[in-house]
Design the sequence.
């Protein structure tokens, strides 16, 4: 695919087309959006071979660039992952349409009847790295919420994203919706990112989905509002009242199921009292699974660990590496997470309701879990069908961003010749 020379002109064309599509989508029937997503899912299944061939080209390109193993894992597709993309599209299709939902209704003494109803945001810009499935997830969720979307995927995933995007466009065509409702930037030129960040005339919100470097760039340079998706420095704390077998099962899954996703465990905290009574067999499990456990203090006595450095705490490894340290009870865990966490996802393993309640009350991460793997930090696992990202900010959207979070609201006010005194 050739780079486009006139990037500002490309942004103008795509932005104007997205604005026009958004105006039409704002009142598009729920059935048409559902039909578009089901048709897109069918196209993904029918074109699975093409998608995998395109992905093979991207993987070759990425290896030549020297991408890390975790990034290659994010990029790679196989038959199961392609099937998962189709399943995600169907799941979003099956959800209730959020547009027009009545959020609240009330009457005033003045005789006014007031409703607050969900309405689309307009045009969403999504800037992401590596993961081609975001093309389908973001396109589906934006469409479901009545938004047009401009997608700018990572340079290494251009062929895969283009093949998936073609399926999304086919779905729009089948449903009679504007094909420019879901647009993919057709160039690797990074200048398009800067154009999107400044495109206040066309884009209502930017969603960055990627590493710290990408998100930091977006937050520093964007003139368009941003749904921040920061690092996933996810902690799991083993409380003194933890069930040992639950802890072993949860911790191993949280770290090793997929190391390259933002919900992967990056730091293990162990209550000192628990360690004195039970040791740390879950660390032995991690070591046996091939994880490099960078341990501090007494935890270094666990065979196979390596000494931790100060910079290992508060670090997103996205690899078969994690940090580990002892803390003094739930208070020590909370203090550590407040200092080193990214307010993404943090978990406590405990049978003590009071300890869990304190952990939930005193931490302000977007997602807090008890006796569950942090790998569940995913919109699909929250019943959203898919997600456009995990927002770690506190304004508008927080946690998994699904279709409902991609809406705003407006007030519909009805009177009967009402005048204000």
Sequence:
């Amino acid at each position: 695919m050739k780079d486009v020379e006139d990037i500002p002109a490309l942004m103008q064309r795509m932005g104007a087309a997205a604005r026009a599509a958004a105006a039409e989508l704002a009142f598009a029937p729920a059935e048409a959006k559902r039909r578009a997503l089901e048709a897109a899912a069918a196209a993904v299944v029918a074109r699975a071979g093409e998608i995998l061939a395109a992905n093979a080209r991207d993987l070759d390109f990425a290896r030549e660039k020297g991408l890390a193993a975790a990034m290659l894992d994010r990029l790679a597709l196989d038959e199961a992952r392609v099937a998962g993309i189709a399943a995600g599209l169907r799941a979003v299709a099956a959800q209730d349409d959020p547009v027009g939902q009545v959020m609240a209704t009330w009457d005033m003494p003045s005789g006014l009847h007031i409703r607050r109803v969900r309405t689309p945001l307009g045009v969403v810009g999504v800037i992401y790295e590596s993961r081609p499935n975001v093309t389908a997830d973001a396109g589906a969720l934006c469409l479901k919420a009545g938004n047009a979307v401009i997608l700018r995927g990572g340079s290494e995933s251009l062929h895969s994203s283009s093949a998936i995007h073609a399926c999304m466009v086919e779905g729009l065509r089948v449903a009679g919706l504007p094909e420019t409702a879901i647009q993919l930037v057709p160039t690797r030129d990074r200048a398009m990112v800067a154009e999107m960040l400044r495109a206040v005339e066309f884009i209502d919100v930017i969603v960055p989905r990627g590493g710290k470097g990408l998100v930091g760039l977006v937050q520093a340079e964007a003139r368009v509002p941003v749904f921040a998706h920061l690092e996933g420095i996810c902690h799991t704390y083993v409380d003194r009242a933890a069930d040992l077998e639950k802890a072993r099962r949860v911790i191993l899954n949280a770290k090793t199921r997929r190391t390259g996703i933002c919900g992967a465990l990056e730091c293990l905290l162990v209550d000192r009292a628990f360690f004195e009574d039970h040791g740390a067999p879950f660390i032995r499990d991690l070591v046996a699974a091939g994880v490099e456990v960078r341990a501090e203090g007494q935890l270094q006595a666990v065979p196979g660990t390596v000494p931790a450095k100060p910079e290992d705490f508060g670090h997103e490894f996205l690899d078969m590496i994690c940090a580990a340290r002892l803390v003094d009870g739930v208070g020590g865990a909370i203090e550590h997470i407040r200092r080193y966490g990214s307010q993404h996802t943090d978990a406590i393993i405990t049978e003590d309701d009071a300890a869990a309640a304190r952990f939930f009350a005193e931490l302000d991460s977007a997602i807090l879990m008890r006796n569950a793997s942090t790998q569940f930090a995913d919109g699909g696992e929250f019943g959203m069908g898919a997600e456009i990202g995990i927002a770690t900010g506190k304004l508008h959207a927080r946690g998994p961003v699904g279709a409902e979070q991609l809406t705003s609201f407006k007030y519909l006010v009805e009177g009967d010749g009402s005048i204000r005194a």
User: Anything to note?
Assistant: The domain at 234-379 is CATH 3.40.309.10 (Aldehyde Dehydrogenase; Chain A, domain 2).
